[in-house]
């Protein structure tokens, strides 16, 4: 079926399943007995009603979508990679239900390529159905809804949740919740993350924060808030994904104020989680057109990971504000210094630049590119290059940061034999640099290599032999003069059957080809990412 038809049928299945399950729960609750309540973990309960509601939901989804994967709280396993996925919480707020506290719901979300596309959240106590189909609308009982317009934290009504299963985190939560409570008008802790998020989406609450949640606690609610005009990130400001450990949701004015309250720290923290795979990357070599960039990096089926090329003539402070803006929309890979300017800096300059950028924007960068096209013939003296990237790798790993090393794949396209990629690696890359590189990426420009199309399975198998256990992908692709649309369609859907391969691509000409967002190549990129 086509995409529009699939989403329409998905919304219908989610809505009908949530309503049927919620109606059954409401009818059965008066008959729930203590013997039908089981503690499956510390302060974590399951009842006969959770199990019954789950069966109703699964049966309804499987009726229309028998091949789709399902992730549900009561039968949870590993998060499936990519594809079509339903994420559901048969009863979010089970503790409330057990105590007859009227704040719980049934939640269903449909995801494609890791991004929520459809959501239905049903509150059986108040007979309220919150629904959303991305890009088309978000409603409560059929009426459109939107996040609040409160712009001052001092006037905000903010809700949170206590990490009940992780009481060792209670002191930190109390400290942050205390900062929020002191800064806003009033706070609540209601006990149902999804329903709280639905209330943010319709403007009853102004913001929601919780640092420790499961995917089924967030998926449907995150989409509702985003579609209602809000901003949704993880609890330290990275783009929200299904693998996020927590969530912060509010309108665009309040979100940065709340983020400052819950992420206040003297030292930049290491990433809580790495960008989810597969990676869908683009390269931004200039941040001056910030508003256009912010717009162009949104609207894809999944969050992108964006390489920001840190200009050798700019200091770290210059990038602070642009990264704060863009990081709400995309994961960030920071390139310390581009290969074409590599030889302009000494080893000591590169060391100082690594320290400066980590100290200044380390809390805004998810992956650090410690070296770009390091075997490029233009990049300078080989030993200087090795010394630069080896220092950056060790320094950033000591800071518990994630790192990437980008090689230049140049089959039969080199004038200096010592710069051939595999020879360069074999002769120059020592074990410490391998240990300090989490990702190994290949830059490849086909029209600079006699239009050669390699056997990529074989190429990446050879890379994997030299970097065992590392994540592999493309670090740059593009063309300045060739058929750009054809190149996009060739590389981004490329399948490489090698363990550890996770995509990347990082189209180099994003600014030139896709700003503003109305340019045709933006739509081409949209269509080939997470199809």
Task: Please give the alpha-carbon distance between the first and last residues.
Answer: 14 Å
Question: Biggest sheet: strands, sense, closure?
Answer: 8 strands, parallel, barrel
Q: How many distinct domains?
A: 3
Secondary structural class: alpha/beta
The share of residues in helices is: 25-40%
Low-pLDDT stretches: 265-272
| The CATH homology group name of the largest domain | Glycosidases
Estimate the global geometry from the Cα principal axes.
globular
Reading side by side through the largest sheet, how are the strands ordered? 15-16-17-18-19-20-21-22
The CATH class of the largest domain turns out to be Alpha Beta
| Radius of gyration from the alpha-carbon trace, in angstroms | 24 Å
Number of helices: 17
CATH topology of the largest domain, by name, is TIM Barrel
User: Roughly what is the average pLDDT, rounded to an integer?
Assistant: 90
CATH architect. name of the largest domain: Alpha-Beta Barrel
Number of strands: 22
Helices and strands, with pairings:
Elements: H1 3-28, E1 37-41, E2 44-47, H2 48-64, E3 69-72, E4 84-92, H3 94-98, E5 105-112, E6 115-123, E7 128-133, E8 137-140, E9 143-144, E10 157-160, H4 170-183, E11 186-189, H5 193-201, E12 207-210, H6 215-227, E13 231-233, E14 247-250, H7 254-262, E15 279-284, H8 290-296, E16 305-309, H9 316-326, E17 331-335, H10 347-361, E18 367-371, H11 382-398, E19 402-408, H12 421-428, H13 431-435, E20 439-443, H14 456-466, E21 471-476, H15 484-491, E22 501-507, H16 510-514, H17 520-528
Parallel strand pairs: 3-4, 10-11, 10-12, 15-16, 15-22, 16-17, 17-18, 18-19, 19-20, 20-21, 21-22
Antiparallel strand pairs: 1-2, 4-5, 5-6, 6-7, 7-8, 8-9, 12-14, 13-14
Helix pairs in contact: 1-2, 5-6, 9-10, 10-11, 15-17
